[in-house]
Structure formats: structure tokens, C-alpha cells
Amino acid sequence: MSRIGKMPIELPQGVTVDIKGADIVVTGKKGKLYQSFQPDMMIKLEDGVLMVDRPSDSRQHRAFHGLTRALLNNMVVGVTEGFTRRLQVEGVGYRAELNGNNLVLNVGYSHPVEMEPPADVQFEVENRGKLIIITGIDKQVVGEISAQIRKVRPPEPYKGKGIRYEGEHVRRKAGKAGKV
Description:
Layout: E1 9-10, E2 16-20, E3 23-28, E4 31-36, E5 42-46, E6 49-53, H1 59-80, E7 83-90, E8 95-99, E9 102-106, E10 113-115, E11 121-126, E12 131-136, H2 139-152, E13 162-165
Antiparallel strand pairs: 1-6, 2-3, 3-4, 5-6, 7-12, 7-13, 8-9, 9-10, 11-12
């Protein structure tokens, strides 16, 4: 039995779940999320607790069991608390700023790079343009947009310049052997 899949998901106050076959809608104080799941998975709502069960012990059902439960839990956490990713901008002259809702990155190119946030995602810039905070209710969208921002200028191994996740360790290289 899947350790993740058999764990119950307790619904906090103010969260409603609408189950229509394999389609689930979770509504909370921060918004509404919709997801379609594998039709074989049995999702039950009893006394404010969501349970996921599988029809058999086949390899595919075992795989979907834990996945379904994890995705449902992410939906519940997203509409109650939301998700946040923090990115650091390292480098002389590198900075980020907001232009309305759009994020403008000045990271060593001849032009500033402007990024528009998807729906239900907000950008914040702190620490004089050196820290970017991405918040939203959908964990997948927040992770994807933060990966796209990081991809504009990934950290390089010689000087460590670029955009990195907060707490990410960048392995540094020595440079030329003739340099002392």
C-alpha cells in the first residue's frame, strides 16, 4: 500500500471540494483550482476528509494512487495558504524591477527582459532588486514560471553571477591555472 496515497487529506475551514467523477474543483479563500484525475482512482469526501483509494494493486494503479493524493493535497494547500518561490539575482549591475505587474530583468544583456505573470501569479521584488518573490495558488504554475525566470540567466560556475533559487548552492570552478 502506498504510504503517501493512503494518508487522509483534512480539509481546513472554508475549503469546499466538488467531486464530479474524475474532475475535482477545490475552492478556498485564495481562489479556485480545477484538476482532472485518472478515472480509476476512487476519491471520497467523508466528514471533511478526502481519501484516495485504488481499485487494484497493479503497477499503474499503485503509481497513480500516490500521485493523485499528492496533487489533491497541493490543491488544498494552494487555495488556503498558496505557494511561494524565491529567486536571488547575483552579479554587479544585475537587478529586477516591477513595471506594473510585469517583471523586468536587467541581467547583462543589451536589452531588459520583460516577463508577464500568468493568471493567479504575482511578482514581488525586494532587497533593491536582488530578490524576486513569486506567489500563487497553483504549485505547478509557480514552479514553472520561476524556472523560466531562472532560465533567463542561470548561475555560471566561475563568478556565480546569474539568477538562482534562494538557498541553491552553485559549484564554483577555479578558472585559469595560470592565475594566482
